[in-house]
Amino acid sequence: MGQPLTVGIVGCGAISAQYLTTIARLPQVRLVAVADLDPERARAAAEPYEGVEVLDVAELLTDPRIQVVINLTVPAAHAEIALRAIAAGKDVYCEKPLAATGEDAKRVLEAAGQAGVRVGCAPDTVLGTGIQTARVAIDEGLIGRPVAATATMMTPGHERWHPNPDFYYVPGGGPLLDMGPYYISSLITMLGPVATVIGAASRTRAKRTIGSGPRQGEAIPVTVDTHVTGVLVHESGVLSTLVMSFDAVATRAPNIEVHGERGSLVVPDPNRFDGPVLLTRLGDQAARELPVSAGYAEAGRGVGLIDFLSEGEPRAGGAMAFHVLDVMESLLAAAHSGRSVDVESTCERPAAVAFRDPATRE
C-alpha cells in the first residue's frame, strides 16, 4: 500500500484518546504530531507514543510532513481550524459536527473544493460491523421494502460526567447536534438521504450543574434545546422518527429499529462500531441475530482515515457530514416554526464496507 498516511491532531481533549489508540494500531496511518491550546495536555497525549512531536497549532497546520489534519477541537472552532488547514493545502478529518453552523460548514467545503483537498468527518462508527451488517440485510431484501425507522437517544445530560460540559449547551451542542450525527448518519447509510423534516423541541432548564471534576457544583447556562423530536422523510419515502434528549432519565427503546414490509431489524448503538443486529421476519416467533457480514471489525474512532488512502470522497466524508448538519438545522427550524422544512442539500449514500480488519494492510 506504499507509505502510510501522515496525520497530525489538533485538540487533545477527552475524545483524542480514542483516536490515538486507533491510529496506533493502523499500519496505514502514522501520527506525526499533536497540538493543543494547553501545551501540557498535548504533551500528556503524545507521551505514550514514540516519535510523536508536540507542536503549537500554527506549526502543525503548516507542517509539510502532515497530509491530513485531524480536527478534534470544540465545535465552535471546527470551521476555523479546518479552513486554516485547507489554506495550508492539507486534507482535513473533523470531529462531528462538521461545523457549528451550516454556513460555516459550507465555507469549509467550498474552500476544500477550491484548494483541491478532501474533507472527512465523524462519525465513522457507521463503518463498523453493526451498521454495515444492518445495511447488508436491508440491501439483500431481508426486511422487504423499507417503510419506517425509529432512532432514540435518552440521557439526563453529559454534565453529570464531563468535567467541562459547557460546549454541550451552547450553539453547536445540545442532544441533536451532539448525538444526532451518529443516528442520522446511520439512517442515511441504511436508507439514503433526507428530503423533508418536521419537528418539535423544548428546553427544560436554564442552567445545568457540573457533576464531576474540579468544577463540580458549578452552574452553567443552557442556550440550546435539550429535547428534540421529529420525523425525517427520506428521498426514498421511508419515514424515520427521531428522539434526542438530554432531559430524560432512561429508555428501553432500541437505539435504532428499521421496519420493512416483510421484516424488522433492531440495529445496535450507532455510537459504537459493533453490536448485534436482530432480525424478525414476517411470521417468525422470535428475533434472530444475524451473523456479522460487513464493516470494519474491532474498529475505533479514526478508522475513517483509511479512505484517505484512495481517491474520491471518503465514506465518512464532508458531503455526508454537511447533509447531516443540514438535516439537523432543518429539524430545529421546523421545530421552531411549526412547519415542515425541505432539506436543501443531499448526498450520495456511501458505498458499503466489505468485512475486514482495519489493523491489517489487506
Structural account:
By secondary structure, this protein is α/β, with parallel strands linked by helices. The protein has two domains: about 120 residues, 3-Layer(aba) Sandwich (Rossmann fold), CATH 3.40.50.720; about 200 residues, Dihydrodipicolinate Reductase, domain 2. The chain is about 25% helix and about 25% strand. The protein contains eight helices and 17 strands. It has a nine-stranded mixed β-sheet. The chain has a six-stranded parallel β-sheet with strand order 3-2-1-4-5-6, sandwiched between helices. A hairpin with a 2-residue loop joins strand 13 and strand 14. Helix 5 runs antiparallel to helix 8 and helix 6 packs across helix 7. The longest helix is centred in the last third of the chain and has 20 residues. The chain is globular and about 60 Å long. The mean pLDDT is about 95.
Task: List the SSEs and their pairings.
Blueprint: E1 5-10, H1 16-24, E2 29-35, H2 39-46, E3 53-54, H3 57-62, E4 68-71, H4 75-87, E5 91-94, H5 102-115, E6 119-121, H6 129-139, E7 146-154, H7 174-191, E8 194-202, E9 207-209, E10 219-221, E11 227-234, E12 239-245, E13 256-260, E14 263-267, E15 278-281, E16 288-289, H8 318-337, E17 341-342
Parallel strand pairs: 1-2, 1-4, 2-3, 4-5, 5-6, 7-12
Antiparallel strand pairs: 7-13, 8-11, 8-17, 9-10, 11-12, 13-14, 14-15, 15-16
